[in-house]
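Entry 14. Ran structure prediction on the chain below.
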Amino acid sequence: MRKDLQRTAIILMLIAFSVFLVTPMQGWAAPAKNVILLMTDGTSSTHITLTRWYKGAPLALDSILVGGLRTYSAESLVTDSAPAATAFATGYKTNSKFIGILPEKTTVPGVPAISEEDKYKPVATVLEGARLLGKSVGLVATSQVQHASPAGFSAHTPFRDRYTLIAEQQVYGDIDVVFGGGLQYLLPKALGGVRTDDKNLVNVLKDKGFPLLKTRDELLAFKGRKAWGLFAPEALLYDLDRKDFAPQEPSLAEMTGKAIETLSKNEKGFFLFVEASKVDWAAHANDPVGVISDLLAYDEAVRVALDFAKKDGQTLVMAFADHGTGGMSIGRKEFYKIYDKLPYETVLGPLKQATYTGEGMDKALDGNRSEFNIRVQMMQNFAINDLTAEEVTAIQKAPRKRAFATVVGPMLSKRAAIGWIYTGHTGEDLFLYAYGPNKPTGLIQNTDIAKITAQSLGFDLAETNRKLYVDAATAFTSIGATTRLDSSNPDYQVLYVEKGIHRAFLPIDANLLIIGKTAQSLPGLVVQIPKTGKVFVPQKAVDLLKAAGW
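Output, structure tokens:
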């Protein structure tokens, strides 16, 4: 009897101990209330290393390093930003230039082959999945918000550069917070924009109850629950250049903080994507100061997110890059004989003396390309007092604005012993950073970010796809209706649905089902794919017509 009791006691102790061991893991896998993704575009480990040396102290990122990230696309070991964003947002690798849609082809080993039926099919994003749960959702970027990375979470098109189309999909995507640049893509030419279809999407936003913030002061003073903040016609300035040339623009950290403050008012939680967009642009230009400028700004945004997550206790933060750019090295061939004795000041001295980025130097010149002004400005703002005649001529002939950095960036790199392979993307594995419930560790795929996000927030991506993107022709045929796409005006394409005396229509790139004089909002977008001619609609559109007696 006593042995039985002892045996029972031991068994109970083992059970209790095993429960103690597994409980943390079970809790770890439980859904998070919020997910914040922070991405620095075009950033390799060398960019991070150089920025840490420049700062002279640990980065916020350093405390949450958990592993690595593989970045290749469906067709290349070196990814374009559009398929990278699509992978992070949807869990699928796709082709160059594709935003939020499945690939046409897959050629990289390990990427599943694509069926003819699924080619170009729109796929749901984690932002859309979070919104279906009733969570608030947001996008923040230092580029125009229609650029590839934020578009990957909010649009569906095979053309990443069709910013006016992407803008329309974003406006009708009912995103609670959108902060960044890109105002010109919402406005017709008559109002200072670039749209040729005469659509005024700012008015659409206002009709939907979204205030439009245009300055840093307006952003910081905002206390509502949803807003768009577009602080420049196109991209925002580099953080280093803002103080002198655009003080009315907010920093990435300020936009991130206000986005978190706004979205967190939803008791159901939120999803937020944040991008330091122009690290990539600086790396394309081989401009080390631009890289450092906006990586420091990104790290401050990461700190803001971490501070919130640590206080909140229910927020998963993941930070990463989408690919490398430029192939930066600390050291270059001119310093080969002394690379192992390369002084700190040789590298950091020229960088720390730079007042502006390469793009900022164009603004400092202010159109005055005289040799005298070039030498004065390069000495005052770049600490370069030994320009060659060839370098002066190159600056005089350099294009304006963003492209100017491609001329002066390499000049500074040469003097700071910074090497570059070229001006394109690179395909190395990258660092992965994370904090909070369900955080990943080890080496993962870029597609795993979407899967972890969905799992953490508690929804199924495949089910979300079934809800948001069904083939319109097939779906409406199931209720005895026919469809017809009217593309007579490419700027105002409409899908007509007919059954007997019944007629409805769905504007392409919007989220509306119109029956008679009544417009009903749909939980997702109506998307037309030019290559296949197919239109995809939310299943809700079919269900509404069926409920109406069709």
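The first helix runs from residue 2 to 28. Will compare against last week's run tomorrow.
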